[in-house]
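Contributing new records

If you add data, match the layout below exactly. Sequence lines come first and carry their own label; structure lines follow with theirs. Keep one chain per record. Anything else will be rejected by the validation script.
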Amino acid sequence: MRIAVYGLGYVGLTGAICLASEGHDIVGVDVSEHKIRQIMSGVSPIREPGLDQMLAEAMASRRLRCTSNPLEPARDCDMAIVCVGTPSAADGSHNMRDIAEVTRQLADGVRAAGRKEKFTVVYRSTIRPGTVEGLILPIFASALGDARDAIEVVYNPEFMREASAVKDFFNPPKIVIGTADGAPSARVEALNRNLSAQTFTVKYREAELTKFVDNSFHALKVAYANEIGRICVKLDIDAKVVHKIFVSDTKLNISPYYLRPGGPFGGSCLPKDVRALQYIANDIGANTHVIDSLMRSNDAHKHFLFSRAVKALPEGASVLMLGLAFKSDTDDLRESPNIDLARKLLQGGYALSIFDPSLRPEHLLGQNLGYAYTHLPRLNDLLIDKATAESRPFDLVVDTNGSADRLSLNCATVLDFYAL
């Protein structure tokens, strides 16, 4: 394909050279004449392992040329890949000036060329969810009018790390393609034909959020690991040994478990151990701000779920909760977030019923018994059996344990906390 790459920084230049190595004809577009002269002389303006040799090969094969004219590629290229920067603005948001400007230039180029064939514009820059729909598409629509159908807009985030960008380009951890309706893009599929990775074709907003989720999680991991490191140093513990033990657990620690948006954490282990580690860290002066935020974040999620449950629900409405224990197939009520939800519903004046087949009040003992009746003194009156749950009409069913699909419920609104 004939491909224009807008923005020749780390992402753009690496992508342009890698695509040229696959046989595509590449036009690199950048505002810096100095950078263009460097590239055209065979000198990479960025340091990236393997890139200098690949640049030399691209220049020798004449698969790569550069220009500062942003309108030129719209005449005869099949695709444009936008890799311009989105640096932080003063308020912490992304500065979208370059995205808007390149989009306007592409629209002007398409209009000036009067092209009829489809032109695919792929954005790789990290952008806020809603940017394609709220900024990019309106610019194309305003500039092109009825001719906007000649533009296919795709959001395809990159997952390249500096110092291993070439390797990551050809071996990405995943491929995410965002389109208007979540349907595949033939040209982007052709672009990625040599890549072997799990592919997710989704709508724009899901694709746009991907990099934020990834990068924030990477930052969280670094900050958390360093907090544990500080605790280890303060307590004269070998942090390398602790790390080795931690990452060896690929069943729970380094795995998809505990990473699905859903209910808050609870039970007899997580809350008490988080509090205890928080106390230890404060006692020894380790300043563990990430760990300190865990309980507050969990409490905030409890309130979020309550607010979501009662949204537009009139006072006195009948509510059925499926599951009271902190997880299904157990009767452990200690620090169960579902007890907090039940208590909030009762305090809010809602007519609450609870069905939990694993729970028998007469079998509760010790701390489990004390916690249950301290927080829900009317527990016995709230519990109903399966026949009653299926026979009564309810205004809302709140499914906290994923059991709603196994019951024949008389309710049009089921709120599944396992599917936020």
